[in-house]
Amino acid sequence: MIYFHSELFSPLFYASNSLSSVNLVMIRTKSERSWIEISLDHFVHNLRELQRFMPEKASFMQIVKADAYGHGAVEIAREAIQQGAAMLGVANADEGKLLRLQGIQVPILILSPSLMEEIPIILKYDLTPTIGNLPFGQILGRVAREKGKILPFHVNVDTGMGRSGIRYEEAEALIRELILVQGINFDGLFTHYAASESDPEYSAYQLSQFKKLLAKIPEHPPWIHIANSAGVVNCPDDVSNLSRLGLLSYGIYTDPSLCEKVNLKPVMTFKSRVSSVNRVKKGESVGYNRTYIAPKEISYAIVPVGYADGYDYLLSNKGTLLIHDSPCPVIGKISMDMTAVDISSVPKEVRPGDEVIVFGDEHTKVRVESLCRSYHGSPYELLCQTGRRARRFYFRDGELIKARPLARREFISSDYEPDELSRVIESAIGEKTGNRDIARLIFDTVLQRLFREESHPLFHRHQFYHRLRFSEPKEKSLAGEYFLIDTELSFRKQLERNYFMIACAGNERELEKYFRRDDVEYRWLLDGSLRPDDRSFTITSVRVNDLDLKYESRLSGSCLELICTHKDLHNLLGKQVRFTINTRTYYPKSSHQLTVYVTGLTRGAEISVDYDGVLPSMDVIPFFPGGQPEIRRHKGSIHLITPEKEWLLPGSGVVFAF
Q: Of the residues 65, 97, 333, 365, which is catalytic?
């Protein structure tokens, strides 16, 4: 038999509601000056469009470097994997590490040349490096052998890009030497088109060079890849079995000619809101250095987005924002934190708080490609630098499914959704302990029991005292089989409501449901031979501070519930109070042990048992994670004491054996 008592932090159950996704987004974004909406539906649409151009049995690698071009590497990676991505592509070992820490398990290729200093990260997180020289491969192989690993690698061949990779004429010799290095495995060979979106002749030359190399090398690796996004559409080949999907998968055309071949939808929409509405008279200027002089009196709006938010400074006097579906040209220089736009052509009245589309909508004027052409910029750059002060909100089937914290700032726990924060905590424990299984054990056995539901406030008990006294029952019918046990439980804790419950059940399964209720302060598991009722389990007194509480008992299924109330309890809500609960019950002599569990967070405790004149002796076995209590023995009694400032974690307890 097991005796339970504790403060248990149970779920705060959420009532269902009928908020529409639109209203939900308004609630989530009402405190945001700017935000980013990511349509996973558009992302999936783009993947399917690009897959139309791929060979039937070809796979794809989703490029998620630079935080998936500003779209959020983790969410994009997970969606891409759901859609069949065989691999992910990143720029460096650190980007791969972050994905692994988020639980991503598919192969992750580091596309750029790795540094020697990155080898420990590559091995620890099972990343696939790109090798471009023999010394790196040899050192990587040696370290991998020392750790008992065989690490896959790819080779990048420079067929005319002129950026990275082993030169075409040197590639065969390098591959032959790398194949012989133990500890590494030749997993892939690739090259990179220099101008697949605009120069088919040069792309054909690169492809021919790559084919010549394939004919020379002694063995072909499992993965051969050539085409980037534009290459998938413009440069079909008959030798690759993997395509690298990047910018086009995010709905951005790399060349106007592609618009006629593939139908893409922007995945990212950068939004803000009007902060103020002003007027400027003819001849007056707006912004720094007076680069805009009003040709007539106009109304203009200030949008709280500037180059610090990633809205490029070169869009000054060239950019366009969308308000009420109307294009509004940028006037004056873009400031660090503000942009002015002409709203004189907007048919509706513009007011502070009105939503603004900074870019990303399918409207031609605010597509990323159109904006970048206006200042001869790069869509890659604009996407990657966007939203430094904007949260990302992810949508599927028109419904908001996730919000991500602000990028590029120190860790702030309130930035994270509760489930995401739990995963971050577990990951951090894994890093600290160096063992993912231990991290899961700690999280499940300790933290999950503290935070049964993320939104419920965490209260703890302190000045905790519990005494159990054994005696013989007066009833002759019970004296041979049972002990009479009187208990006194006393502790301080914040009062959460104007009532609380005491629960008694005849089996663990029935009692378990009370562990999920935060209005239950005391739980008792009764011997199965006794029926839970007022005769087998009795409250002799219950107090909060100096108030003597009344209680009503009722049966709920096979459980006895005792609801404790007082008309003046509401005056103590939110205050630290002392609970004192005295009970009387019976315990079978045949059990030979009694276990006390403290399943809630408790600071400082004394647990004692008095068996004088009833039992000749008693043993005690404490299990207190984090430290053992002081044990004091007297004639017929045992006392376990922890220091006042020492915490008792969930799972702490003591077995009294007799």
A: 65
Contacts 24+ apart (CB under 8 A), 224-228: 224/188, 224/189, 224/190, 225/61, 225/188, 225/189, 225/190, 226/190, 226/191, 226/192, 226/193, 227/193, 227/196, 228/192, 228/193, 228/196
φ/ψ (deg, to 5) at 559: -110, 145
The rounded distance, in Å, linking the Cα atoms of 297 and 344 is: 9
For 196-215, the DSSP string reads TTT-HHHHHHHHHHHHHHHH
* 477: Cα separation from own chain's centroid: 59
Q: Which residues contact 583 (CB under 8 A, 6 or more apart)?
A: 486, 487, 489, 502, 522, 524, 537, 538, 539, 540
Instruction: Report the alpha-carbon distance of residue 372 to residue 453 in Å, rounded.
Output: 46
328 close to 301: Cβ distance less than 8 angstroms:
yes
Distance, CA of 12 to CA of 263 (rounded, Å): 46
Tokens read off for 13: 């159950």
C-alpha span between 449 and 141 (Å, rounded): 44
Q: Picking from 17-21, 133-137, 337-341, which range would have the lowest pLDDT averaged per residue?
A: 17-21
Torsion of CA 161, 165, 168, 172, to 10 degrees: -160
SS3 485: strand
**Domains, the chain, with CATH or none:** 2-10+459-657 (2.60.40), 41-254 (3.20.20.10), 268-389 (2.40.37.10), 413-450 (no CATH)
**Among this protein's residues, is 318 annotated catalytic?**
no
Q: Which residues, including other chains, have CB under 8 Å from residue 358's CB and lie 6 or more apart?
A: 34, 270, 271, 272, 303, 305, 311, 321, 366
Overall size of the chain counted in residues: 658
| pLDDT tier, 19 (very low <50, low <70, confident <90, very high otherwise) | very low
C-alpha to C-alpha distances, 351 to 253, 354, 471, nearest whole angstrom = 34, 6, 78
Question: Model confidence over 523-578: pLDDT tens digits?
Answer: 888 877 788 888 889 999 999 999 999 999 998 888 999 999 999 999 999 899 99
65 flagged as catalytic: yes
Q: Please tell me which residue in 212, 216, 288, 550 is annotated as part of the active site.
A: 288
What is the b/e burial string over 508-543, where b = at least 16 CB atoms within 10 angstroms of the residue's CB?
Answer: eebbeebbebbebbbbbbbbeebebeeebbebeebb
Task: Decide if 249 contacts 228 (C-beta within 8 A).
Answer: no
Structure tokens at 76: 């994009």
Instruction: List the Cα angle 225/183/186 in 5-degree steps.
Output: 15
